[in-house]
Write a structure and sequence with these properties.
nucleotide-binding, globular, about 40% helix, ATP binding, about 240 residues, amino-acid transport, binds magnesium ion, binds adenosine-5'-diphosphate, Rossmann fold, alpha/beta
Amino acid sequence: MLEIKDLHVRYGKIEAVRGVSLDVTPGKVTLVLGANGAGKSSTLKAAAGLEPPVRGSVRLDGDDITRLAPHKVVRRGVVLVPEGRRVFSPLTVAENLRLGGYTAPKQAYDETLARVHEMFPILADRANGAAGLLSGGEQQMLAFGRALMSQPRVMLMDEPSMGLAPVVVDSILAKVREMADSGIGILMVEQNADAGLDVADHVVAIARGEVVFSGVAGDARSHASVLRAFLGEAALAGQ
Ligand SMILES: Nc1ncnc2c1ncn2[C@@H]1O[C@H](COP(=O)(O)OP(=O)(O)O)[C@@H](O)[C@H]1O
Ligand SMILES: [Mg+2]
């Protein structure tokens, strides 16, 4: 459904992404692994319309969405769950969700909100509380819920487990699996490679802006280029 082809992203002289190609499939989790600075976030931002690529294309069901404005990309059904969650702390949980669903007509909105509450009951329990008072894991659920309010077909997730305790990491990633199982295509960057592999279908490893491995999750664990990509060169030095 979402097809990224030969993507190049630059910041001045820095070539952050150099020819990345990957696919996102309905109902599947594609995990992106790579060391710090490998170009993972830049790839997601380009797909979301936030960082226009200098070359390459992003297609949704064959339609070119490469140079659409970010809000139009959301309307097409591709939504970014940003790094660091970015919930609006002073606003209530309900208000945060409303911001995610601003494009939906009233009836669709109510139905979607009911589904989000079903998947994340804490967001119903805490509807009138300030988002900033939620725990890190709860804020991540709010970030997921807010994204779901736009009724996405594809979700781009940048390090959803960052800064969370190990037990919370597992429950967040279980939710990612649940969202995929509902039919959404997911492209997820995750530093927590082991936990990420547990819920992933496909794995793409990126090093210095280039894809160094692409395959099914089960094959990724033992693949040297994957280890190198997410542990960094230093981890394999001397081996
Ligand atoms: N806004 C920016 N301006 C300049 N350089 C950037 C910017 N964002 C990222 N970079 C650089 O681009 C490269 C890739 O960054 P990024 O995509 O954030 O990597 P990752 O998410 O894999 O850690 C890094 O060298 C980073 O320093
Ligand atoms: Mg990043």
